[in-house]
Every structure is written in structure tokens, then in C-alpha cells.
Amino acid sequence: MRSAARIEGLGTTVFTEMSALAARTGAINLGQGFPDTDGPRAAIEAGVNALRDGENQYAPLPGVPALREAVLEHQMRCYGLEPEDLLITFGATEAIASALLGLCDPGDEVVVLEPYYDSYSACIHFAGAHKSPVTLRPPDFALDPDGLRAAVGPRARMLLLNSPHNPTGRVLRRSELDLLAAACTEHDLVCVTDEVYEHLVYDGEHIPIATLPGMAERTLTISSVGKSFSFTGWKIGWCSGPAQLVAAARAVKQFLTFAGGTPLQHAAAAALRLPGSELEALRADLRAKRDRLSAGLTTAGLEPLRSEGTYFINADVGRDATKYCRELPERCGVVAIPIGVFYDHAEVASTLVRFAFCKRHEVIDEAARRLATLAGA
Ligand SMILES: Cc1ncc(COP(=O)(O)O)c(C=O)c1O
Q: Which atom of ligand 1 is nearest to the CA of 95?
């Protein structure tokens, strides 16, 4: 029970509370990051065909060959990467859990950018390891070189990275990645990098850390089909990198879920093989939605921060963000998340609220209209 309580304290409760509030009040839910439209039709058809064609039994543990090939092609086509091995997982979430459990020993330290995606804290805890945070501070959430230096202690075993970064919307620059890579090589850290928003960059570019000199041989790169292609419910992900690192994740995954989601693995393969113009169209649409919500937040009297990627934009609400978010559904019918829940040091971002913009244009407009009714209140 003690352990369960510690896990629950890691942010999930806010999502549960906010989703319940959204359901009870009928509020527009800009709390959780999932699109309200489907991704590309051709990928859905591929999934339907796979269901009809008898692809309904366990997948091989490493994943169905068609998807494995599609991931390898994707890494080569987009980044020139040739990973030694890869593993298909139940979303990036299972890849994260498998990597942490497979690569960390009890007492190890995991250097991780704070604020964190909520599963990181839980999985570090499951592994018996400890977080060593590098805190990203508003308004720009840039990497602090001194903070990085201070975070890499003698017990550091892993750098757990996320860029484009949830919840800040920051995309790490090459100079920041160079510093992180240098820390990894100097201190012999394994790098696990969560790149689920790799294709959702609206300003700047996504640079996989595995492409930096000396990093491919120590980096396990994680991604999934959910965010890039607007299929968050499919939960098909993967990790790729050196054979030894993939083997460690595979050894764990075998006993978490073994292997499944077979028809959706075929659908994900079809998604990855779509022409680049499909991804470009999805990205352009999300960029327009980001801009629309940002303008709406400004009109509503809030102060949006810059979001360079992901599904999220933060705004300064000029008061206690947790209280604000608890009251928001009743006051105006909108749900959002205080980003302090993703920090251990919540005071760093105590007035910041995260809004998801991966919603239809009319939903964004209606949310902005509702928020504007509070202006000056
Ligand atoms: C940073 C980050 N990593 C991983 C995930 C989960 O990915 P998946 O749905 O593929 O498990 C999310 C989803 O919100 C995320 O924001």
C-alpha cells in the first residue's frame, strides 16, 4: 500500500480528477493529449484488413516483421540511423517501462529533465532507482548547463531524455543536445530518449540524440505511432538501438505483456509507410491549431508561452494554477492541467497551466470563447 500511494502521488491523480470533472460538468477537455479526429484512412484500412485476414494471434515477441521493417526504414529515411536491433511495444509507455526496468539497478540514478512525463517517475520508482532532475524553468525551458552538471553524480547510470518535450512544448537545440551527449560519454551513461513527438515540431527541427557523435552506441530511442499519426488509442510503439540495450528491454517486455496488438501493428506499418506529405499535413494542421489556441488564450487575458512542438501549450494564469484548474470546469466549462504536477519542484511553475490544442478548430474556438468569459474575473 505504501508503494501504491507513492506511485499515485506522482501526478496521475490530477488526470483522474480532471477527467472526472470533465465528464461530470460536460466541460471541453483540454487536459489530456489526444486528438478528436482520426488519423489517415489508409492506415485504418490496413488495420481492418489485418483483422479480416486472420492477423489475430500473438505477434512474435520482437514485433511483426512488416512493422519492424517499417520502423527501420523510417529511422534510415528520416535520420540516417541504422539501429542494430528494435523491439515493438505497447506504446512508448511499455518501451519506457521495459527500458527502465531492464537497464537500471536498485540505487542507480536516472538523470531526467524536469518536468517529467508522468510514467517516468513511476517506472524509475518500480526499478528501485532514483531521479536526479535537471529542472527546466519557464518562460523558455532551456537546458541549464550548471543544473545538468549538478545532476550527474557518481551513481548516475542513465540519461532519460524527452524532446520534443511534454509538458513544456520545448524542442531541444543542437547545442543543448551536445551538452547532454557530452555528459553521457564523460560519465558513461546509457541514454534512453523518448521521441514520441518527433514529427510534431512547428518551429525548429527535431534532432535525435542518437545522431550525435558517439551516441548511437549508447542510446535507446523510443517512439510510437500515437502522436505522429493521431492514433493514440492504438498503443503501438517501439524502441531501437544497440542490440544489448534492446535485449535488456525485450527481456522485461516478455514478462510485462509478451506480445499482441497484432492487427494494429500491421496498421502502424502502413502509417509509417505513408508518403511524407501525410505527416506534413498533420503537422501543418496541428501548427494552425497551436496558433489558434495561443491567440485565443491571449484574447482571454492569459499569457501563453512559446510552444515549439507536441500537443501542448502552456499559459501563465497569474494565480495558483492548481486552484485555477480545479475551479475552471465549473466556472467556464474547460479542463486543463496545472504543470506543477509534472515537477517535483512545483513552485517553479506554480502559475502555469497546460492546454492541449490537438482538437478540432471549432472546439478550440469554443474553449477560447469560454475562457474569455473569465477575463478580468
Ligand atoms: C512524452 C510522452 N511519452 C510517452 C507517451 C505515451 O506514448 P504512448 O501512447 O505511445 O504509450 C506520451 C503520451 O502522452 C508522452 O507525452
A: 11
Q: How far is the CA of 94 from the centre of ligand 1 (A)?
A: 10
pTM here is: 0.96
The reply to whether ligand 1 has any atom less than 6 angstroms from the CB of 223 is: no
Place of cell 540524440: 209
Residues in the chain: 377
Q: Alpha carbon of 309 to those of 97, 224, 282, 333: distances in Å?
A: 24, 16, 13, 26
Q: Over its length of 377 residues, how does the chain's per-residue pLDDT go in tens digits?
A: 445 655 555 555 677 888 888 888 889 999 999 999 999 999 999 999 999 999 999 999 999 999 999 999 999 999 999 999 999 999 999 999 999 999 999 999 999 999 999 999 999 999 999 999 999 999 999 999 999 999 999 999 999 999 999 999 999 999 999 999 999 999 999 999 999 999 999 999 999 999 999 999 999 999 999 999 999 999 999 999 999 999 999 999 999 999 999 999 999 999 999 999 999 999 999 999 999 999 999 999 999 999 999 999 999 999 999 999 999 999 999 999 999 999 998 999 999 999 999 999 999 999 999 999 988 66
In the chain, count H helices and then E strands.
14, 13
Q: Whose CA is nearest to atom 7 of ligand 1?
A: 92
Within 8 A by CB and 6+ apart from 5, the residues are none
Q: What is the sign of the dihedral through the CA atoms of 143, 146, 147 and 150?
A: positive
DSSP class per residue in 82-132: --SEEEEEEHHHHHHHHHHHHH--TT-EEEEEES--HHHHHHHHHTT-EEE
Nearest to 120 by CA among 147, 160, 151, 152: 160
Distance CA 34, CA 25 (A): 19
Of 14, 93, 165, 193, the one to substitute when testing ligand 1's pocket (max ligand atoms within 8 A of C-beta) is 93
Q: What angle do CA 138, 140, 142 make, to 5 degrees?
A: 100
Question: What is the distance in A from the centroid of ligand 1 to the CA of 375?
Answer: 33
All three cell numbers of 26: 460536460
